[in-house]
Amino acid sequence: MNFIEENYQSLLRFAVRMTGNWADGEDVLQTVAVKICLKQEELKDIAHCKSYLMVCIRNATLNQRRTKARQRVADGSYEKLKDTMTDPSTRQEFELVEWIESLDHHLAYYDEPSRKAFIAYYVDQAPLEEVAASLGLTKRQTTKKFESMRMYLKRHHKHLFVQLSVLMSM
Questions:
Q1: How many Å apart are CA 139 and CA 141, to the nearest integer?
Q2: Contact, 103 vs 95, CB < 8 A?
Q3: Which of 15, 18, 121, 158 is geometrically suited to a Cys-Cys bond with 61, CB 3.0 to 4.6 A?
Q4: What is the pLDDT of residues 76-109, one digit of tens each?
């Protein structure tokens, strides 16, 4: 918990960037902080706390988005909402979540930590040093692994590779 207190501002900024607004960012960070407090004994030996917390925040954000989307599907408002959406950021949020899930699904050949790190690096724009540290690899090894994953997408899932290339050029 001490680490969260020391890095609260940077973690909050990351959460706000992930969620798109201040209130949801605070909610996500609070949820992550509570979970960390409950598992404090189990998490003593984590070598790269900030990277771990950023992954937790990203996962909590994606879970929050999925929950909202499921609620909209369950009450039938998703289709109406999708058809009548005037706010481009809301439409982009749905499309981004669907795209990330598709990317994760199509990279199933790779282990889960590698997929999450790949998404964190390319989608969330996490620093390469932190992503490499979360995998326990050097920056060079991580870069090679990501290049291998990109080439796999290029060979087998061209549409995802093109979308990833567009995302990287932004």
A1: 6
A2: no
A3: 18
A4: 554 554 554 455 555 566 666 777 777 777 777 7
